[in-house]
C-alpha cells in the first residue's frame, strides 16, 4: 500500500495550503475534499506564507492609496484603507475573534460558560470598545510608520507575524478548549520547530530590508532601524504567548476565536513597535550595527 500513502503525502501541502487560504482569507479557493489532522497541521504551518500573500496585497493598497490620495493628507487615508483592506481580505474573522475573546475573558465566568459567551452572536460593549481601540491603534501606528518611511516593511512584518502567532499556538504547548471545532482540529498539530523557523525567517528578512533600504539610508537611518524588526516580532510573539497562556487558564484551552485574537494582538504590537522612535541615546548605542 505505498502508493496510497505516497499519494496522500503528495496532496498534503497543496491541501494544507488550500485549507489555510479558505480558513484565513477570502480567496475563492476550493478547500480540500478531506480535512484530516495532518491537513490541518499543514495548513497552520503554512499560515505565515498566506500572511505573506496578504501582506503584499495590503502593502500594494497602501502604496497605491498614497499615490492617489489628496496631497494634504495622503498618508492617513492610505493607512486607513490598508487596514480596511486587511479586514476585508480576512472577512473580519480575526476581528470577530478578538471581540468574542474579549467578551469571554471579561465575563469572569467558569471556562465552559465563558466559551458559551464567546459563541453568542451578540458582541458586548467591552468587545466593541476593544475592537475599536485596536483598529484605531493599528491605523495610527501604520500612519506613523508610513510617515517615517517604514510603512511597507511595517505592514508586511505585522501581517506575517500575526500568522506566525497562529502557527505557534498550534503546537503541543496549547490544548484545545473543546473536543470539536477549529481549536480541536489544529491544537498540537504543528511541530514546535516550525514557528521558530518562520519567526527567524521573518526577522532576517526584515533586518535585511532595513539594511539595504536606500530610502532609510538617505534619511540617515541609524542602526536601530536594523534591529527594529527583531524588537517588533520578538515583543509581539511574547505578548501573544502571554495572551495564549491566559486564555488557556481562563477558557480551558484554545478556540478559533482565540486564534483570531492572537492575530490581531500580534499585528497591533508589531505595528506599534515599528512606528515608535527610540530615544537618541539608545539609537547612538546601536549605531555600531549600521553597515558602513
Spatial extent as radius of gyration: 20 Å
Along the chain, the helix and strand elements come as: HHHHHHHHHHHHHH
Shape: globular
Biggest sheet details: none
Structural class: mainly alpha
Unreliable parts = none
How does this model look, in words?
This protein has helices at 2-24, 37-45, 47-68, 74-89, 93-106, 111-119, 125-147, 151-169, 182-186, 193-212, 214-218, 224-251, 256-275, 280-285. It has 292 residues and is mostly helical.
Give the topology, please.
Elements: H1 2-24, H2 37-45, H3 47-68, H4 74-89, H5 93-106, H6 111-119, H7 125-147, H8 151-169, H9 182-186, H10 193-212, H11 214-218, H12 224-251, H13 256-275, H14 280-285
Helix pairs in contact: 1-2, 3-4, 3-8, 4-7, 5-6, 5-7, 5-13, 7-8, 7-13, 8-10, 8-12, 8-13, 10-12, 12-13
Labels describing this entry:
75% helix; 0% strand; mainly alpha; 292 residues; globular; 14 helices
Tell me briefly what this model is.
The protein has 292 residues and is mainly alpha-helical. It has helices spanning 2-24, 37-45, 47-68, 74-89, 93-106, 111-119, 125-147, 151-169, 182-186, 193-212, 214-218, 224-251, 256-275, 280-285. α3 packs antiparallel against α4 and α8 (151-169) runs antiparallel to α13.
Amino acid at each position: 500500500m505505498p502508493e496510497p500513502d505516497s499519494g496522500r503525502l503528495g496532496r498534503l501541502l497543496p491541501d494544507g495550503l488550500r485549507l489555510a487560504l479558505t480558513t484565513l482569507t477570502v480567496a475563492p479557493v476550493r478547500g480540500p475534499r478531506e480535512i484530516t489532522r495532518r491537513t490541518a497541521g499543514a495548513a497552520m504551518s503554512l499560515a505565515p506564507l498566506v500572511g505573506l500573500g496578504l501582506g503584499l496585497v495590503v502593502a500594494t493598497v497602501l502604496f497605491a492609496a498614497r499615490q492617489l490620495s489628496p496631497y494634504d493628507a495622503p498618508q492617513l487615508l492610505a493607512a486607513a484603507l490598508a487596514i480596511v483592506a486587511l479586514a476585508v481580505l480576512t472577512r473580519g474573522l480575526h476581528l470577530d475573534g478578538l471581540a468574542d475573546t474579549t467578551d469571554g475573558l471579561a465575563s469572569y465566568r467558569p471556562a465552559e460558560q465563558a466559551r458559551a459567551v464567546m459563541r453568542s452572536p451578540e458582541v458586548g460593549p467591552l468587545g466593541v470598545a476593544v475592537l475599536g481601540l485596536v483598529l484605531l491603534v493599528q491605523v495610527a501606528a501604520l500612519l506613523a510608520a508610513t510617515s517615517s518611511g517604514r510603512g511597507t516593511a511595517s505592514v508586511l512584518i505585522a501581517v506575517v507575524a500575526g500568522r506566525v502567532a497562529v502557527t505557534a499556538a498550534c503546537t503541543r504547548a496549547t490544548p484545545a478548549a473543546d473536543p470539536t471545532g477549529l481549536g480541536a482540529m489544529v491544537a498540537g498539530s504543528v511541530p514546535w520547530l516550525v514557528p521558530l523557523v518562520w519567526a527567524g525567517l521573518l526577522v532576517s528578512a526584515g533586518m535585511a530590508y532595513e539594511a539595504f533600504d536606500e530610502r532609510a539610508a538617505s534619511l540617515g537611518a541609524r542602526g536601530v532601524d536594523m534591529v527594529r524588526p527583531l524588537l517588533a516580532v520578538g515583543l509581539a510573539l511574547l505578548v501573544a504567548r502571554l495572551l495564549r497562556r491566559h486564555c488557556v487558564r481562563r477558557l480551558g484551552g484554545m478556540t478559533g476565536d482565540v486564534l483570531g485574537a492572537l492575530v490581531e494582538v500580534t499585528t497591533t504590537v508589531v505595528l506599534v513597535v515599528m512606528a515608535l522612535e527610540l530615544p537618541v541615546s539608545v539609537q547612538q548605542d546601536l549605531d555600531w550595527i549600521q553597515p558602513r
